[in-house]
Structure formats: structure tokens, C-alpha cells
Design goal:
It comes from Streptomyces djakartensis. By secondary structure, the protein is α+β, with helices and mostly antiparallel strands. An eight-stranded mixed β-barrel has the order 1-2-3-4-6-7-8-17. The protein is built from six helices and 17 strands. The longest helix has 15 residues. It folds into two domains: 91 residues, Diaminopimelate Epimerase, Chain A, domain 1 (Roll); 157 residues, Diaminopimelate Epimerase, Chain A, domain 1 (Roll), CATH 3.10.310.10. Helix content is 24%, strand content 36%.
Length: 278
């Protein structure tokens, strides 16, 4: 397998979220993919195989386990494919369901990819789970923004959305990693989407990701898609909407994610970003 390395949601290799990309993983079994992801060491590596109908079958592995969907690795895969085969529209089959991704060049020549997620949905976070999660994070109920209620959100993977009342609260991230790993495993959460609302359409996010073996993810496209669905379902944004999510700033790896939220319910959420080869 040829292993490519890209950073997604940034034009600077020192920013964004690194992802491994294998454009032709034909013949690789699950053990080989997991071992490859562990050797790459990024939060996720995407493995693509072209099927007979022209689609790409894509699987995503962290260094520790397979995950059903990964936004930043999808963006990286699409840009890597475009560099070799030209821009256009790709149809992906992922463990979470079908995902379309379109690549084009921006006015300055950078390759930009837009994925459209599977249909999003939300679910309540049980009171006991919320209390446990806040205790692990060291947050209190007073630290929460009442305008953005806690909720589990899905657009290919599940993420509890927890909104901070201030940017300062979001900036102070310190948690019990083994305890959060155990809670997330019980509830099948992929990352925790901690957010702060700067304006009606601008948000800041941090995503603890202990199931992937890392303290924090610098850019999480799957969580951004789920968050867009959460805002639409709960009527917390006027749709159609274009949102900007800033992530990775507190880690020194600034990332910018553009989220497009259609007005039609039960439709996929668009996630747009650049990617550059490392």
C-alpha cells in the first residue's frame, strides 16, 4: 500500500488535522489496515478500494480501532484523489452509509473538497451520562450555555454536543482520559463536541478523542456535520445556513471548517475544507 499523508481543513501543513490516506487498499484485511493506521499514528487513516461500479469503498481506522466515518480523512482522500485523477464528484460507500464528495479548485488554486453526510439525527443525553461527562471534564452546570442544550448528534458517527457559556471555559480543557474513554465506549460516542458560539453562524470547537488514542482532535468533520444537523433539528439556526467552525486553535493547529446546512429536514449536511500534502 502507498501511504499518503495530508492535513485537512488547513492550507498550512502545520495546521489542520493530519490524516493517512491509502487510495488503493485492495487486498488489505482489517488487521493490516489497523496495523497501518497504528504505524501512521494519526487520529485516522482512510483506506479506499475502487469497486466495480466506480464507487470508492472507504474504511477508517484510528491507531486503536475502526471508526464508522471520519470527515477530515474523507476530505484528505478526496483531495489526494483529485491530485491524481482530476477534480469532480466521488461516490463513497462508508460503514456509516453513502457519502458524496466533490472537489474543485478555489480562486487561488487550492484544492477544496465538500462532503455531504448521511442524514443527521439527534438523541437525548441521559441525565446520569451528562453528570458523569461534566464531572470527567471538570465542568459544572453553570459552565453550560443554556441556549445550546446538551444532545447526542449523529451524521455518520455519534458525538455529544456540549456548549460552553464562554470562550474561556472552552479554552481550559483538562480531563480524565481513562474515565472518558470508558464512558464513550459504553455510549458509542466517537468524539465529544465541545462548542462555543461566537455569533449566530460562527462557532469554536474542541473535540476530545480518547477512543482514537489522542487527547484532542484538531479538526473533526464528522462532528461538524453532526453539529449542523443538531442546530437544524433543534431550530437553533436559521436555515439554509453556512456556518464557520474554528477548531484546533488551542492546540496550535488552527483549522477552519465550513458547514452548509440545507433547509430541508433529513438531508445531509455539507462540510467543506482544503487539504494539503504533508
Amino acid at each position: 500500500m502507498e501511504i499518503l499523508r495530508y492535513v485537512a481543513f488547513s492550507t498550512d501543513p502545520a495546521g489542520g488535522n493530519p490524516a493517512g490516506v491509502v487510495l488503493d487498499a485492495a487486498g488489505a484485511d482489517e488487521a493490516a489496515m489497523l496495523a497501518t493506521a497504528a504505524s501512521v499514528g494519526y487520529s485516522e487513516t482512510a483506506f479506499a478500494v475502487r469497486s466495480g461500479d466506480g464507487r470508492l469503498d472507504v474504511r477508517y481506522f484510528s491507531p486503536l480501532a475502526e471508526v464508522p466515518f471520519c470527515g477530515h480523512a474523507t476530505i484528505a482522500t478526496a483531495v489526494a484523489h483529485a491530485e491524481r485523477h482530476g477534480t469532480g464528484r466521488l461516490l463513497l460507500r462508508t460503514p456509516a452509509g453513502p457519502v458524496t464528495v466533490t472537489t474543485d479548485r478555489s480562486a487561488d488554486g487550492a484544492l477544496v473538497a465538500t462532503l455531504v453526510s448521511v442524514a443527521p439525527r439527534t438523541a437525548p443525553v441521559e441525565e446520569a451520562d451528562l453528570a458523569e461527562l461534566l464531572a470527567i471534564l471538570g465542568w459544572s452546570a453553570a459552565d453550560l450555555d443554556p441556549a445550546l442544550p446538551p444532545r447526542a448528534a449523529f451524521a455518520g458517527a455519534w458525538h455529544p454536543v456540549i456548549a460552553a457559556a464562554s470562550r474561556d471555559r472552552l479554552a481550559r480543557l483538562d480531563y480524565d482520559m481513562p474515565a472518558l474513554t470508558a464512558l464513550m465506549a459504553r455510549r458509542d460516542w466517537t468524539t465529544v463536541d465541545l462548542v462555543w458560539r461566537e455569533s449566530p453562524t460562527v462557532f469554536h470547537a474542541r473535540n476530545p478523542f480518547p477512543p482514537g488514542g489522542v487527547v484532542e482532535d484538531p479538526a473533526t468533520g464528522a462532528a461538524a456535520a453532526a453539529f449542523g444537523g443538531y442546530l437544524r433539528e433543534l431550530g437553533l439556526v436559521r436555515v439554509p445556513a453556512t456556518l464557520t467552525v474554528h477548531q484546533g486553535v488551542d492546540m496550535g493547529r488552527p483549522s477552519t471548517i465550513t458547514v452548509t446546512v440545507p433547509a430541508e429536514p433529513d438531508t445531509g449536511i455539507g462540510v467543506t475544507g482544503t487539504a494539503v500534502r504533508i
